[in-house]
Specification:
The chain is 78% helix and 0% strand. The chain is mostly helical. The protein has one domain. Helix 1 packs antiparallel against helix 4. The radius of gyration is 15 Å and the shape is globular.
Length: 120
């Protein structure tokens, strides 16, 4: 399997898992034993759908998919930074939320590393 296809599969899997996990909480089917930030929950579910689009684009080797993947990484990185700052300022942020965003950011860093093009 090519690196590009592996990156696509990772994007699809993380997108689907994010939609399912966030959707269950959004629909009230499960509650978490830690504080949930409503804006972060909505962001995660929305980005789950964006991840599916990026994954499908990567699988089909669409030119726009690389740009979308970089945008997903940038958004996750920014949200991770926001969560860390909120935590350092003593605001209510679950460590689980920080760790989950760190995981997503790491996965998308890997995806972007796998799909990078060599300079000519």
């Amino acid at each position: 399997m090519s690196k590009h296809r592996l990156a696509a599969l990772l994007a699809l899997v993380i997108g689907l898992l994010t939609i399912v996990e966030g959707g269950i909480v959004l629909l009230g089917l499960e509650t978490k034993p830690y504080p949930v930030l409503p804006w972060l929950l909505r962001y995660n579910v929305a980005m789950g759908f964006v991840s599916l689009a990026a994954g499908l684009g990567l699988w089909r080797e669409q030119g726009w998919a690389g740009t979308l993947s970089r945008m997903v990484l940038a958004c996750h990185g920014l949200v991770l930074l926001m969560l860390l700052v909120m935590h350092l300022l003593g605001m209510t942020v679950a460590v689980n939320s920080i760790m989950a965003m760190l995981f997503r950011t790491a996965i998308w860093t890997g995806i972007n590393f796998m799909i990078r093009r060599k300079a000519t």
